[in-house]
Each structure stands twice: as structure tokens, then as C-alpha cells.
Write a structure and sequence with these properties.
The complex is a heterodimer. In chain A, 28% of the residues lie in helices and 31% in strands. By secondary structure, chain A is an alpha/beta fold. Chain A is globular. By secondary structure, chain B is an alpha/beta fold. Chain B is built from seven helices and ten strands. Chain B has helices at residues 30-37, 73-85, 136-148, 164-168, 176-188, 198-208, 236-255; strands at 23-26, 41-49, 52-59, 62-67, 90-99, 109-118, 132-133, 153-161, 193-195, 211-221. Chain B has a five-stranded mixed beta barrel with strand order 5-9-8-6-10. In chain B, helix 2 (73-85) packs parallel to helix 6 and helix 3 (136-148) crosses helix 7. The chains are: A alpha/beta, B alpha/beta. Chain A binds chain B through residues 114-119, 127-134, 137, 140-141, 144, 156, 158, 183, 186-187, 189-192, 204, 207-208, 210, and chain B through 113-118, 126-133, 136, 139-140, 143, 155, 157, 182, 185-186, 188-191, 203, 206-207, 209.
């Protein structure tokens, strides 16, 4: 079946065309953050908004770069990433906020993500569960170098990409509370460093399409907040 | 339930604290430990029990070891558990593998950043959604070593499977369709090699907060575009790059 296009020939959901974005795209969850990110570009320009997808472009070191919001969760993220790849993007950095998982992690810490726990439904429509959601080594190294150059302390590790925000924050009120709590304990024991909702599907779709992806998260809530 | 006794001398590897260094190579084949030990200074055979054969020596004055794991996740998990219990904290799995992408040429090296958990052992530790990811610093050291020694390599994902013949002769298995569909998914996902131990090692590494990585010789490639593609069994490049990677890590650790 052919992919539906908008009347203008743009991508169905992000409403962008080939040539609108460069190779390098930042992917925040929140549409409201795109303008802030674009303010760090040279020549920032608002391109289009449709649903939760807001896109700005600009330049860094004279290279065209863009920022497109994904909305919350892997379903809307998968759509954004598929459509951005279709118009030529090949390098993605997911940038967002997250919750801490390890005791001792503080709000304000920065986590560079190496891999993601596929605690979500979308990536399973692409790839069996045993396949690792892993970031691109060059992107990870670039973010490490970026943090070192900017003198910002960072943690390196695995993120939990979940489908249910309130299942994490308030598991007791869910009918499957015991399962949620047992699995959370496994992620803690496995050393996961943060919890967010989009990285796993970005990494799986990037592996399938041989594109580069990584993620950097601000720890916005500490583990103490939960308990 | 019987009380489990944790003896000083570990049950399977037959070693105790002090017998190995922090840095341990993990080949599958006990026979290969002798080749690897020849590249150490002052190497000495420490123990040999079942498929677990261990030598300890030094590299740049630092104590290092090699311990074979046998084939598969079950025996690998035992080796890694017991090695961690006696003080090892940095592991490089070295082994042979089959290529999975058409353009891969036998003889090149596959540096394994992560592993497909197509096996049973790691499921006894961690739900399957958790990614089997290696330590980034170990992977970066392996890459720097390959660049320094000018050996062709690629970085990527390995398939860690439980059944050798399920991969090589899936057609004769009652679950043939499933095996073939999954193999196709791993290929489409960009996996670069197929072996049998990395996933277990990486999951244990995450749980016990020890550093792990893997480097495989691509010995053959059943997916090659070239109908006359051969088999390469020469291990010199693989072992040279592995030794160089430990040298880089030892140097970094001394500075830290």
C-alpha cells in the first residue's frame, strides 16, 4: 500500500518535504521545546506545525540542522522518525527529560544513553523483543566529547523506555502493580540510569534503516521523588 | 532448599581470589587459551576443569588472565559469575563468528556493541526487553586498537543464539519457519555476526556493574554476495587487536 501524502506532497504527519530538513535532527518530545532548541542554531527558521510535530531548521557549523518534536511515547515517535528518514535525515539525537532510576542520581544530572529497555509496544511491531535497542557508537562518543568540552558531568547508561507514565510514577493503583514493580526492580538491578518514553523505538528504527541515533536526557526527577 | 555453600575455590573454574587479574579474555574454546596466553608475559596455567581452562600472566606489568567459557550461554554464565566472585571486572569475549550482512568479507573483525538475546540463559537474569549492551569504553578501546593495527573491522550487533545447527541447517528443525523469519529480522536490523555467548556476558556485566565487550573474527559468511566466499581461520589479527585493547584500557585505568 502506498504511503498517504498530503496534497502538497509532504509527509502525512510531519508535513515536511525532501529538502526541508538536513541530515542532523534533534528530537525533543515537547513541541514547546523546539523554539528553545532552535534558538541555539544559526539562522533559525520555523518551518511547519501539524498535530504534535513542530519543526524548525537552522545551521550549525554551516550545516543544515533541524529540530522536530515527537510528542510523548513511541507511537508518535515512530511516525516522526519514519517520515524524517523518508525526507533525508540520517542522524538523530533524542533530547529530553527523564526520571532517575538509581539511588544517588540527582535532579539536574545528564544521562547519555547507550541503549534502551524496550518496555513499550511500538518497537515490537518492527523487531522481535530479543533485539537490543542500542544507540550509534559515534553519536555516543560525540555526546561524551560534547559533555567533556562543555565541562558538564554526565552518566553513561541504559534508559527505560516505557509506555505508561503513571504506571511508573504510581504503580500501586494499576491492576498489574506487582508486575510493574517486579520489572522496575529488574531495571534497577540491571543498572538502568533513567526512565523516559521514546528512545527504544528511535534506536530500533535507526538500526533497521542504518541511520545514526543517540539520546541525552536531563534527569528531571530523582528517585527520592518516587518513594 | 539446600543451603548453598560458597567455597573459596569456585566450584567450576577451580580458582580462588588472587588467581586471576582484573582483566580477563573469554574465548569459547579451551584450546585457544594456550594461544592467547602465549601473548602474555610470564604466563602460567592456573587451572583446567571441564571446559574452563585458565592462564594468568601480565601485559605492560598488569595482571591479566584468559579463561575459556565453553560453548553457549549456560557455561558462560557460570564462568563469568565465578570470575567476578574472585575479583575480575573487565572482560573481552574473543571468538569466531559468521557474518550476517552481504558485504562482509571473512577475515574482518566484528566489534560487538550489543547482542540479540536469542538464547535462554540471560532470561534467567533479566526480562527480554532489557538490551544486552557492552561497556562503551571497552568497545571504544577495541575500535582504537583495530584502527591502530590497521585491521578491517565494523562495530555492531551480534546474534547470540543457543543452537548452532538451528542457524546452519534451520530447514531440518520442526521450528524452521520461526528460525528463518527471525534470522531475516536480525539481518534487516543490521546484525553483523552470529555467535553464542555475548548476550549472556553483557547482561551479567550490566547486573554486576563490570565492564564487558566482544570482538569476533568473521570466519565465514553464509549471506555473502560472493558465491566463492571462503573461510578464514587465522586468529592473529583478532588476538593482536584484543591484546592492544587491554593495553589501552590498562593505560586509561592507571591514569584514572
Amino acid at each position: 500500500m502506498a504511503v498517504r501524502k498530503t496534497k502538497e506532497g509532504g509527509q502525512h504527519h510531519i508535513h515536511l518535504h525532501k529538502g526541508d530538513v538536513g541530515r542532523y535532527v534533534f528530537l525533543p518530545g515537547d513541541p514547546g521545546r523546539c523554539e528553545i532548541i532552535a534558538s541555539y542554531f544559526d539562522e533559525p527558521e520555523f518551518i511547519v506545525q501539524n498535530r504534535e510535530y513542530v519543526t524548525y531548521t537552522g545551521k550549525l557549523l554551516d550545516q543544515k540542522v533541524a529540530v522536530t518534536s515527537t510528542g510523548i511515547g513511541c507511537p508518535s515517535t515512530a511516525i516522526a522518525v519514519e517520515e524524517l528518514i523518508a525526507i533525508g535525515a540520517d542522524t538523530f539525537i533524542r533530547i529530553g527529560t527523564s526520571g532517575a532510576i538509581q539511588p544517588g542520581t540527582k535532579a539536574g544530572d545528564v544521562a547519555i544513553v547507550t541503549g534502551a529497555i524496550r518496555d513499550e509496544g511500538t518497537s515490537l511491531h518492527y523487531m522481535p523483543v530479543e533485539f537490543p535497542a542500542v544507540a550509534d557508537l559515534d553519536v555516543i562518543q560525540a555526546m561524551k566529547e560534547g559533555a567533556i568540552r562543555a565541562k558538564i558531568p554526565y552518566i553513561l547508561g541504559i534508559t527505560q523506555s516505557k509506555d505508561s507514565f503513571y504506571g511508573e510514577i504510581d504503580p500501586e493503583r494499576m491492576p498489574i502493580a506487582a508486575q510493574l514493580q517486579n520489572r522496575w526492580k529488574a531495571w534497577v538491578d540491571g543498572g538502568a540510569v533513567c526512565s523516559e518514553m521514546e528512545a527504544a523505538v528511535l534506536f530500533i528504527i535507526s538500526s533497521i534503516n542504518r541511520k545514526r541515533a543517540g539520546g541525552v536526557m536531563l534527569i528531571a526527577g530523582s528517585d527520592d521523588m518516587r518513594s | 532448599m539446600a543451603k548453598i555453600d560458597f567455597p573459596e575455590v569456585k566450584y567450576h573454574i577451580q580458582m580462588k581470589k588472587g588467581d586471576v587479574g582484573r582483566y580477563v579474555f573469554l574465548p569459547g574454546d579451551p584450546g585457544r587459551t594456550d594461544h592467547i596466553a602465549k601473548l602474555f608475559d610470564n604466563s602460567k596455567l592456573i587451572a583446567s576443569n571441564r571446559e574452563y581452562r585458565t592462564w594468568t600472566g601480565t601485559i605492560d606489568g598488569e595482571k591479566v588472565s584468559v579463561c575459556s567459557t565453553g560453548i553457549g550461554g549456560p557455561s558462560t554464565a557460570i564462568a563469568v559469575e565465578e570470575l567476578i566472585a574472585i575479583g575480575a571486572d573487565t572482560f573481552i569475549r574473543v571468538g569466531t563468528s559468521g557474518g550476517m550482512q552481504p558485504e562482509q568479507v571473512p577475515g574482518e573483525l566484528a566489534i560487538t556493541l550489543a547482542a540479540i538475546r536469542d538464547e535462554g540463559t540471560s532470561m534467567h537474569y533479566m526480562p527480554p526487553e532489557f538490551p544486552a549492551v557492552a561497556d562503551i569504553n571497552v568497545i571504544e578501546a577495541l575500535r582504537q586498537a583495530a584502527i591502530k593495527l590497521d585491521v578491517p573491522y565494523r562495530v555492531g550487533i551480534t546474534q547470540s543464539k543457543d543452537s548452532f545447527y538451528g542457524q546452519h541447517e534451520p530447514g531440518r528443525m520442526p521450528v524452521a519457519d520461526r528460525l528463518q523469519q527471525r534470522w531475516k529480522a536480525w539481518k534487516m536490523g543490521g546484525a553483523i555476526c552470529s555467535e553464542m555467548e555475548a548476550a549472556t556476558l553483557f547482561i551479567l556485566g550490566n547486573i554486576y556493574r563490570v565492564r564487558t565487550g566482544g570482538i569476533m573474527l568473521v570466519a565465514a559468511n553464509q549471506e555473502s554476495n560472493d558465491p566463492n566466499v571462503g573461510v578464514v581461520e587465522e586468529l592473529d589479527d583478532l588476538l593482536a587487536v584484543s591484546i592492544e585493547a587491554f593495553k589501552l584500557l590498562i593505560e586509561q585505568d592507571k591514569k584514572a
